[in-house]
Amino acid sequence: MTSLLRHRVTLGWLVVVALWVAAGLLKPGFARIGHLRYLLELASITGIVAAGQTLVVIGGGIDLSVAAIITFSAIILPLITFGFDPTGLLAISMTLAIATAIGGLNGIGVVLLRVHPLILTLATATILQGALILVAGGSAVSTVNPAVTFLGNGSLFGVPMTIVTWLAVSAATLAVLHGTVLGSWLYALGTNDRAARLAGVGAGPAVVTVHAASGFCAGLAGLLLLGMNRQGYVGIGEPYLLGSIAAVVLGGTSILGGRGTYLGTIAGSILLVTITALITVVNASPGWRAILFGGLILGLLLVSGRERQA
Length: 310
Prior knowledge:
The protein is built from 14 helices and four strands.
């Protein structure tokens, strides 16, 4: 029982439950089903972005281009929604394919150029931000794509589509991590890259695949955000760069790679949204929110680093 309580994934879920119970007692209405469902809808966006980030981080990398890919997807989809496709599915497919390709290029760059993922994905983010300013000119772009609107605001058997989509992404991510050779390769690469390569791990394909998956997840999150807001604009994805990394670290995944599970990231995503909701209740300023997120990440990075050295 003691070891279970010390497990960071278990602790993450216990903290979420404790916060919901405490907030429900102190703030009437906070723990109502409708409000908790709303929190899960908000957490689903972070959770989907963090799914790809979890795969990359466990493999020993990091993806700083997710925010730019989210924004890119939210702006580019209305521009490639054509009248001859009333369903809007063609534009969704094209957008997700582009987002996946951007992620794949990140992976190819890491493998072929041997550049650290932090530097390469940061460069990709900068290029995308510049391209978006040229394409959109800083203006918001509205969408009437019916499929995107359904994804952002529709429901399936009473469950919001954002949550349904998150459940599907969660199942796929857990299956990859714990039920495939790729998952085993990621844990080996994150633990000891050189030893893993000497043992015959397919490092190149694994790195390219997880970066492509991260691009896909960021693109999907961009479409959900677009559907929820009905508008895409420069900067719409910015909160999710820090949020995705924080969810991964809060969920117990080592930022140095090799350890962790997406189950913890799910708890981390819900925890972040819950903390944000609580800060909003006490009318904390956006500046204090940023300070809290930054402080959490810094503290957990220090803890993660010390655990690895121990």
